[in-house]
Amino acid sequence: MTAWLKHLPQTIAESEVDLLAGDTLPSVWVDRWMRDPQREVIHDPKQGWINGGTLLARSQIAARKLARAGVAAGDRVLISASSSVDLVVAHTAALRLGAIVMPTNGAYRADEVAHVVSDARPRVAIIEDAEWGEWIRAVDKNIVLTPPSISLDEGPDISLDAVKASHPALIGYTSGTTGRPKGAVLSHGNLLSSIRGLEIAWRWTSHDTLILALPLFHMHGLGVGLHGSLAVGAKAVLLPQFKVDQVLNAISEFKATLFFGVPTMYSRIIDSGRANELDVLRLCVSGSAPLSSSLHESIQRESGQVVLERYGMTETAMLVSNLYEGARKAGSVGIPLPGVEIRLEGDASEIEVRGPNVFEGYWERPDANAEAFRDGWFRTGDLGRLDEDGYLAITGRAKELIISGGFNIYPREIEDVLCEHDAITECAVVGVADDEWGEAVAAFVVADRDIGYEEARDFVGRRLAHYKRPTHVRRVASLPKNALGKVQKHRLVLDRDN
């Protein structure tokens, strides 16, 4: 029996599953908006509800503006802004035009922005931070800058929605084991197939209303929350940031049925004393970082919600999910989603995957692509184990990636910055378990004087995104190394009093 068949409701047979029904997400969205133009689709605190007909018209106008600015099919468009209707319009317009969207974290600083801009060479940057404009223009003065409202001249009518499933749709930057972040290129088919799988597995329908407080530069918020809501015809209530009271108030106000979050969000909901208010939801989903068994149990005890944990990544969108109808095991990410296959390879049991949701490679990185795939299977870099029921548990990472609060953090990037400090001669950065964040950043430094926590944190924070700042700093006489001089990070032990 194919493992993913366990996700199917009794009313759907395997032969009826078509993960590419509609060909592309923009085609699916436009079809829904045209058939039911008065249906409310997206809400934000400033503009209220926007219906499908308005989204259709506004995205057409925005696409004409982007085309007038020189964007053609295959060109890149960088988008970095807080969640809003304007951002949704800009994103859908770029995809309808055939451009490749670069969703970019607004917490990035100058060096990080310069890297993604020089790597993917966008034609237009849709941003809300004026400082970013300076950083982008420092790399390429010809890049057109505009706020999310797309304050550009409008061009003539143009052909839209001509892209095919095989055409690239997104470049998502993700940390690897060496060098700077790489751009994972996902096709329209990759994105659509992942949503079709979730639509089936989570019984996601047009009757649902999602409270979406996740950022829209991340696969969880953008590739699942927004894309999925638009595709199935559900409503999405956008919150520009996560605040417990705003989320719980919105659940009540909008009669929500869904909430997607990361473990940090659920931890704060528990701490608020209002976790019982989750009981009205049809489904709570957690992802982007491991949900501890203790937190899983706390949520169930306080609200009755058995949180559904799932597993995915930038390169693959969603891969695995606990069952909607069936056991949701604490500490497990579940069963492969429709169309997805997984296998464990090597003595360390590395998780390898294949399916229509899996990307074909990194942007202009043939070297990385050769390393990332084995016999047509993508090597996730995560380690896992399967139980007797076929449920997957993540046991560790072959790569050194740190995941804190749902954000991917590459240690080498922080180490390079710390070593610029005039008092630090060597350093090593590792992830350590943290009840709230899943993992926290710990820095071990060899220095000619004491380096305090605040000094190191501020030094990194001025150069990198805030979530990459060390939470723990320990000065050591030397770093443990093997005979070849490689730092043995597994021998670094954090004394929590330091």
What does this structure look like?
By secondary structure, the chain is of the alpha/beta class. The protein has two domains: 3-396, 3-Layer(aba) Sandwich (Rossmann fold); 402-491, GMP Synthetase, Chain A, domain 3. The protein is 29% helix and 26% strand. The protein contains 13 helices and 26 strands. The chain has helices at 25-35, 52-68, 85-97, 110-120, 130-139, 188-201, 219-232, 244-253, 263-272, 293-303, 366-372, 411-418, 453-461; strands spanning 40-44, 48-51, 76-80, 100-103, 124-127, 144-146, 168-174, 182-187, 209-212, 235-238, 258-261, 283-286, 308-313, 317-321, 335-336, 341-345, 350-354, 361-362, 373-374, 377-386, 392-397, 402-404, 407-409, 424-434, 438-447, 472-475. The strands form six sheets. The protein has a nine-stranded mixed beta sheet with strand order 2-1-10-9-11-12-13-14-15, sandwiched between helices. The protein is globular and about 70 Å long. The N and C termini lie far apart (52 Å). The model has no long low-confidence stretch (mean pLDDT 92).
Features:
29% helix, Rossmann fold, GMP Synthetase, Chain A, domain 3, 13 helices, 498 residues, nine-stranded mixed beta sheet, 2 domains, alpha/beta
- Give a quick account of the main beta sheet: strands, pairing sense, barrel closure: 9 strands, mixed
Query: What is the strand tally?
Result: 26
> What's the domain count?
2
Helix content: 25-40%
CATH second-level architecture of the largest domain: 3-Layer(aba) Sandwich
Distance between the terminal alpha carbons, to the nearest Å? 52 Å
CATH class of the largest domain: Alpha Beta
Shape: globular
> Which structural class matches the secondary elements?
alpha/beta
The proportion of strand residues reads 25-35%
Radius of gyration: 22 Å
Look at the structure and name the CATH superfamily of the largest domain. ANL, N-terminal domain
Poorly predicted sequence stretches spanning 5 or more consecutive residues: none
- Give the overall pLDDT as a whole number: 92
Provide a count of the helices.
13
